[in-house]
Amino acid sequence: MNRFLSLGALELGEIEELLALARRLERFPEPSALAGRVAGLVFFDPSLRTLASMQSAMARLGGSSFVIAPGRGSWPLETRAGAVMDGAASEHVREALPVLAGYADLLAVRAFASLTDLAADLADEPMATFAALVQTPFVNLESAIDHPCQALADWRTLDELGIPRAGKLVLTWANHPKPLPLAVPAAVAEMAALRGMEVVVLRPEAYAFPEPLAARTARAAARAGGSFRESAERDEALAGAAVVYAKSWASARHYGDREAEAALRRGLGDWCVDEDWFAGAPAARFFHCLPVRRNVVVADRVLDGPRSAVVFQAHQRLWVQMAVLHRLLAGGERRGR
Amino acid sequence: MNRFLSLGALELGEIEELLALARRLERFPEPSALAGRVAGLVFFDPSLRTLASMQSAMARLGGSSFVIAPGRGSWPLETRAGAVMDGAASEHVREALPVLAGYADLLAVRAFASLTDLAADLADEPMATFAALVQTPFVNLESAIDHPCQALADWRTLDELGIPRAGKLVLTWANHPKPLPLAVPAAVAEMAALRGMEVVVLRPEAYAFPEPLAARTARAAARAGGSFRESAERDEALAGAAVVYAKSWASARHYGDREAEAALRRGLGDWCVDEDWFAGAPAARFFHCLPVRRNVVVADRVLDGPRSAVVFQAHQRLWVQMAVLHRLLAGGERRGR
Amino acid sequence: MNRFLSLGALELGEIEELLALARRLERFPEPSALAGRVAGLVFFDPSLRTLASMQSAMARLGGSSFVIAPGRGSWPLETRAGAVMDGAASEHVREALPVLAGYADLLAVRAFASLTDLAADLADEPMATFAALVQTPFVNLESAIDHPCQALADWRTLDELGIPRAGKLVLTWANHPKPLPLAVPAAVAEMAALRGMEVVVLRPEAYAFPEPLAARTARAAARAGGSFRESAERDEALAGAAVVYAKSWASARHYGDREAEAALRRGLGDWCVDEDWFAGAPAARFFHCLPVRRNVVVADRVLDGPRSAVVFQAHQRLWVQMAVLHRLLAGGERRGR
Asked: Which of A74, B91, B251, C81 has the most other CB atoms within 10 Å of its CB?
């Protein structure tokens, strides 16, 4: 294993091994496992959890990390092939990433969706291109259509909370002032499907999963004996849920058209998860990947109540990323030229 | 001790112990005391000394640190309870700080005064709220009305320079292009009072300490046998000073009214500390917490002359913060979930 | 050796020793050589390679580092002597750098050229002033007229690629949307001259080296038995080159006059290095310090072809900087007050 790009790209057994390694590292710390190793963290987009948990994960394994933020501290980077670079970008990723890979034992990159070109975002080409530019171990810290660190942390959260493998997970669209990437919904739906769960995506019709994403999720369900469907009927979808996972995302119908999307959302203010959503699933836990906008995506009383798992979820990021870093780096050769 | 929020919240004996620990760590380094420990540093506001000295302090004790800067590298954070978060802030501190605390063994936060609501700033509510959100050890890196790391460093500076416990410390207001928080003047006056000094706050009438702050400083003086008073008479106040500590702060009279404050200051350009201020205290040392604006707050010839202790003061930050981190973290359990 | 300010300030034997140390550290890692040591990295200007390679170099030697970025995370710093600081800058380097030096075992500073005052930039006064403010070991991470880390890395690159000591190195001006500092061309030309190479600077007449720079390069050539000349004739200059090193720089004729410079450049779009430049030097390697603008400075087919050494060049930064840090820090006393 030299790449951590997508949970769906792994064998189910590899995922189980990562989760077992996370449990082991929590119980039996290995504070020198990555001594002398350096992770290079490249953030094209802002971060709180991912930055802090990656730096902490490296430190707890005895390694260290550096952070490069193109456009903030470093100059903007060009990503298009063949570009005549007479604009804002001073450097191309074709130089920048291989150079940084030479200073690090592992490179990890965050680059959000364009939110303008649906087909390109669904194909997740930029992240694949970045990974192909370097030979060092490589981690996807959220790409246009994936967020495997979040997905693995959520799987661990489900295990730790004792949510049954065959339980029902409802991923519900929620309102938000801005159109957001499909990365987390895609990664979470695939994760739950791979875990063998009954996955229901609850959303207004305009927020249906675009076809390639629905197909990907269905394939994941088929691999693991789970199921996947979509619904616009709140009561039906939520009934019997073990987990209600809220997340906003952009409409595939109006992708890149902010005005049409804003008009659409003006009628969807009631897509704010509140306690009455849980009438048919009184024991369900509430999940969100964070950051979450209080009283827009979800009401204070849900977030501050006993069903909320959101902070616990975020804490699992540390342990699963320690496992990923350990798997990609420990035991290998220290990097020379 | 699990919190370092304010010098005034400590027993005098605890302060002495921290200072003794700082001396010990300077003389007998403990480069592995915090091996495997991680400090999370959250800067809502910019920093130079505090950031560098905290990261260096962790490193010199064998630990490491990560930095989160909401609004610069991370998104802005909401702090108001009950907010409908449809504005700029993507995340609430109620999630962000507990999440970060899960990645760290200690959280340290800087959040400056609002400079708009005097009562709120004097009550220092945001920092108390932040601290209450997390169970990990917590350090105040400058709040609306306090700066305990600066105060402890200044206490150590006074000790190292041999300034008598009962010596006279004059905290003088100085001119500045902008209204500044009361945090440092409040922390320094309290510190000197707790050390048993004769504390005189020299300022134009419009810059008198607001009543709750004056009362807090007087209580500190009462605890330690020192004294506290204010004066607008420069010669009288400065006579016999062992230390002249310059600092600008906002007028409580015009708090939040930048135009009224600016008008007031146009007549106060002579509140720039110069050598002639020391006629009645020729051996007095000059202190400032930095950053300092040369030739506005204090003349070059004072800062560059032998009475200036400002760089030495700043260097003490390292040793006292090492003591605080050691006290809060060493010997405890390594953090699990 | 307590300063690394300019390759030209070193004895040739000292440079050879640094290169030998770099080779040794690559072959025989010393992961504890700088245990407990802290480097303070001050970036007045943005960085990608320098930041990442310095942090990685400290980490690989067992030390750590902190980063201060005035104006981004920290406030802007004043550099002028005698300034009345009532503007944007909150702090003067006369305080900031000695303070930071107290937290670190070594200070390293990047501060680009003004690009407005040619004489001041050629004199490189700011970096000399910064270095004079601190007693700790000090590294120039690119100043107005020098970039010794880049120069030393390029020397190592030439050695590693087997470029003969007496080989011909052509430093060619290239087009660029913006006027850029003379630091890299100055440092590279001096480095190649000190290595004993035949150094030819190929440029349009308006981009001739200003006289003090030409004189400095000629002196370097005289020290080492190499040669230095300038030329505007592309074919003649390039014939027989072992290395073609491309870099754009500002015209000394129009220094600080962006409009005149922009007008001048409108006729120079063919100064984009392409494969046909190598007709008279078919085996020549292509160098650039990066960041490089593709298809403005150099064509894709050169950068992506086998003659390009640019990523390899950048990777050498790590090893030579490890040598510089090791030389300045290892074996010395751990820093007390």
From this structure: A74
Which chains have 3+ CB pairs within 8 A of C?
A: A, B
Determine the Cα–Cα distance for residues C170 and C286; give it in Å rounded to an integer: 10
Candidate from A29, A48, A294 with C-beta closest to B68: A48
Q: How far apart are CA C324 and CA C328, in angstroms?
A: 6
Is A312 within 8 Å of A288 (Cβ atoms)?
no
State how far the Cα of A316 lies from the Cα of A61, in Å rounded to an integer. Answer: 16
Q: Is B74 on the interface with A (CB under 8 A)?
A: yes
Q: Which of A49, A60, A296 sits opposite B99 (nearest CB)?
A: A49
Chain B neighbours, 3+ Cβ pairs < 8 A: A, C
Q: Tell me whether residues B102 and A292 touch, CB distance under 8 A.
A: no
- CB C55 within 8 Å of CB C41: yes
Helices (H), B161-309: 183-194, 211-224, 234-238, 258-266, 300-303
Burial B268-294 (b: 16+ CB within 10 A, else e): beebbbeeebbeebeebbbbbbbbbbb
Q: A93-103 and A125-133 helices cross at what angle (nearest 10)?
A: 50
The mean pLDDT value for A123-151 works out to 97
Mean pLDDT for all residues in chain A: 96
Nearest to C56 among A83, A91, A104 (CB): A104
Chains near A with 3+ CB pairs less than 8 A apart are B, C
Report the 10 Å Cβ neighbour count for A112.
16
Which helix (H) or strand (E) element contains residue C106?
strand C106-110
Q: Residues for chain A: how many in total?
A: 337
> What single letter denotes the amino acid at residue C273?
V
- Entry pTM: 0.96
Cβ-based contacts of A72 with chain B (< 8 Å): 72-73
Among A294, A302, A316, pick the best mutation site for testing chain B contact (most B Cβ within 10 A). Answer: A294
Tokens of C216: 């400095």
Chain A 77-116, CB below 8 Å of chain B: which residues? none
Residues 143-202 of B with CB under 8 A from A: none
* Contacts C296 to A, Cβ<8 Å: 84-86
DSSP string, A220-233: HHHHHT-EEEEES-
Task: Name all domains of chain A by residue range, CATH numbers in brackets.
Answer: 3-147+317-329 (3.40.50.1370), 162-308 (3.40.50.1370)
Which of C142, C201, C214, C145 is CA-nearest to residue C173?
A: C201
Q: What percent of chain C has pLDDT over 70?
A: 98
Interface test with C, best of A41, A77, A90 (most C CBs within 10 A): A90
The CA distances from residue A42 to A75, A108, C210, in Å, are: 12, 6, 39
Element (H, E) at A41: strand A38-43
State how far the Cα of A334 lies from the Cα of C231, in Å rounded to an integer.
Answer: 46
Mean pLDDT along residues C63-90: 93
Which residue, among C109, C32, C36, C128, has the nearest Cα to C69 in the 3D structure? C109
Contact (CB<8Å) C315/A102: yes
B28-66 pLDDT, tens digit each: 999 999 999 999 999 999 999 999 999 999 999 999 999
Query: In the predicted model, what is the mean pLDDT of residues C290-308?
Result: 98
**Residue from the list C43, C51, C64 with its beta carbon closest to the beta carbon of A68:** C51
Q: How far is A337 from chain C (nearest CA, A)?
A: 8
Position A242 confidence tier, pLDDT thresholds 50, 70, 90: very high
Alpha carbon separation from A173 to A25, A296, A315, B42 (Å, rounded): 34, 12, 23, 31
State the complex-level ipTM.
0.96
Distance, in Å, from the CA atom of B251 to the CA atom of B237, rounded to the nearest integer, reads 20
Phi-psi region at B162: left, alpha or beta (left = phi > 0; alpha = psi -120 to 50): left
